Amino acid sequence: MRRRIRALMAAFAALPLALAFAPSAHAADPTTMTSGFYADPDSSPKRWAAANPGDGRAAAIDASIANTPMARWFGSWSGTIGTATGAYAGAADQRDKLPVLVAYNIYNRDYCGGHSAGGAASPSAYASWIAQFAGGIANRPAVVLLEPDSLGDYGCMTQGQIDERESMLSGALAEFSRQAPNTWVYLDAGNPVWASPATMAQRLHEAGLRQAHGFSLNISNYFTTAENTAYGNAVNSELNARYGYTKPFVVDTSRNGNGSNGQWCNPSGRRIGTPTRLGGGAEMLLWVKTPGESDGNCGVGAGSTAGQFLPEVAYKMIYGY
């Protein structure tokens, strides 16, 4: 908190008097307002390790996964959403740490894939939900990853449904600009094999990317950091050529240590990647998907549900087997 106050005071002191109180959406850098990333004390691996101290896997899971800063996902399961995001951002702020939050509740979520189907009951319900999400964070520093997979999931959608989705995303970005000025929001852009850079650049732009701080890649997937960096740079080349601007991007490295074997749903032999930090070929490398949490009833997670923590999968992911 002290660092945050000092940063704000310095920023205001550097401004001309006439501009000192002029509103400027997303002018602040939340990474300089905090002293590192927030490690969720209530993450699923942290809870499992604490509840199973006698398990031979617990020490490794606690040391290699549970104490690494990673994102918390928010959706219909989160209760009153403004209260939930406010409590999480507030807990991080009290420790002078930067929280990473995932908004995952868009209407017709995973419409084509179906494995994570659900979301808000209507576009208007989503607009209300995301407004409360942003309002809960308010002026606290935060990073938000907006609706993973939402721009890759077009294969079975009509143009009307696509327009509706892009309008919801653009509206969400406007809410963060209005209510959460110290939050960097990244609009999700899928992964390197889902859509061509040109296609993804168009989708990002039409969904309001200009309002966002940047875009995110590889959420819940396995592609290497190098592959994602090349793809992000290619998307930026398309953005620059078509629309005259570029944006920073972040990469989910939580499960990309061994790269992808072509499977996305609980593949075997995957490994944790570079822990959350600034830089690394992108603006940030983040753990977004929690290692060991299932993708659904498939692969090495057969019999599980999406989001269920599987200690054996987590343990093997530490060592890459």
What does it look like?
Its EC number is 3.2.1.-. Keywords: Carbohydrate metabolism, Cellulose degradation, Disulfide bond, Glycosidase, Hydrolase, Polysaccharide degradation, Signal. The active site is at residue 149. Residues 1-27 form the signal peptide. With 321 residues, the chain is an alpha/beta fold. It is 37% helix and 10% strand. It is built from nine helices and eight strands. It has an eight-stranded mixed beta sheet with strand order 1-2-3-4-5-6-8-7, with helices on one face. The termini are far apart. Mean pLDDT is 91; it is low at 1-25.
Structural class estimated from helices and strands: alpha/beta
Q: What pattern of helices and strands is seen along the backbone?
A: HHHEHEHEHEHEHEEEH
Kindly report the spatial arrangement of strands forming the biggest sheet: 1-2-3-4-5-6-8-7
Multimer state: single chain
Helicity, in percent? 25-40%
Structure summary, number of beta strands: 8
| Overall 3D shape | globular
Could you describe the largest sheet, including whether it forms a barrel?
8 strands, mixed
Helices, by number, come to: 9
From the alpha-carbon coordinates, what is the Rg to the nearest angstrom? 19 Å
Strand content: 5-15%
Mean pLDDT rating:
91
Poorly predicted segments: 1-25
Q: Report how far apart the termini are.
A: 41 Å
